[in-house]
Automatic annotation (TrEMBL):
Single annotated GO MF: phosphoprotein phosphatase activity
The protein's name in its UniProt record: Protein tyrosine serine phosphatase
Family annotation (PROSITE patterns): TYR_PHOSPHATASE_1 (PS00383)
InterPro entries: Prot-tyrosine_phosphatase-like, Tyr/Ser_Pase_IphP-type, Tyr_Pase_AS
Matches recorded under Gene3D superfamilies: Protein tyrosine phosphatase superfamily
Superkingdom of the source species: Bacteria
Family note: Belongs to the protein-tyrosine phosphatase family.
Pfam families: Y_phosphatase3
Length: 263
């Protein structure tokens, strides 16, 4: 059998990919076509829907805020269970908001976009609301059918989804350097989106600070994830302890996840 591709052949959206094939500490690999991550499912074509239907997609775990899901509801096959699992009550990442909502700050400070993203990443792992949402996310993974794929996503598939993937891949004991590479892979898959943002803002004669900040917020950066990692370290001492103490995953939960999603 041919090796599955990491990037999924989806036309109506971006940042669709498979977490399969990643190696773990103890010689296992993540199963292909079991754990999928992506951006919004709002613009799926009929061909895309057929692809997920043929795949027998079990769950669509939507990490977006209620406002986002109402504005751009997911399209999923009839046999797929839709789960609203908002990380924030509003879109703190601003992935779905007009950047003009704090344009004065973006014009004034060339570091404002990165500062905003670091704050968001800290909140995702340190605030009670997002912590509970990620606990719910893990419970959805634990209760999913063992032989069918699960997809989780937000708007851009990079921040809320990125932290979900970071925690999940750690729970599955994937090697740390591989987890970082998966997180940063977003930049490869959204290059066209980033280029489009740059062209539109340049054509609109926006300031260089505004353009740079907009691109910083449309990207993933090692420093963003490092902010979350530092917060996890401060809270629990290690990501393994964070999974047990904050995500409330028991040893049997972790064993069940590994049995379900690893070869």
């Amino acid at each position: 059998m041919p090796i599955p591709t990491r990037r999924l052949p989806i036309n109506g959206g971006y940042n669709y990919r498979d977490l399969g094939g990643y190696p773990t500490f103890d010689g296992h690999t993540i199963k292909w076509r079991r754990l999928l991550r992506s951006g919004s499912l709002h613009r799926l074509t009929s061909q895309d829907l057929q692809y997920f239907s043929d795949m027998k997609l079990a769950k669509d775990i939507d990490l977006r805020s209620p406002r986002e899901t109402k504005k751009e509801p997911d399209q999923v096959p009839g046999a797929t269970e839709y789960i609203a699992n908002p990380i924030f009550s509003t879109d703190e990442t601003r992935a779905s908001q007009p950047i003009s909502s704090f344009s004065d700050e973006l014009n004034a400070d060339p570091n404002r976009g990165r500062q905003h993203m670091r704050t968001v990443y800290h909140e995702m792992v340190a605030e009670p609301g997002p912590q509970q949402a990620y606990r719910d996310f893990f419970q959805q993974l634990l209760s999913a059918p063992a032989d069918r794929p699960v997809l989780f996503h937000c708007t851009a598939g990079k921040d809320r989804t990125g932290i979900g993937a970071y925690l999940l891949l750690n729970a599955l004991e994937v090697q740390p350097d591989v987890i970082i590479k998966d997180y940063l892979l977003t930049n490869e898959l959204v290059k066209d989106v980033q280029q489009d943002i740059k062209q539109k803002l340049t054509a609109g004669h926006f300031s260089s600070n505004y353009i740079q900040n907009s691109l910083d917020m449309a990207s993933v950066k090692r420093e963003y994830l490092q902010t979350a990692q530092d917060a996890i370290q401060k809270i629990s001492g290690s990501v393994d302890q964070y999974l047990k103490e904050v995500m409330q995953l028991s040893d049997s939960d972790l064993q069940a996840l590994r049995h379900k999603y690893r070869d």
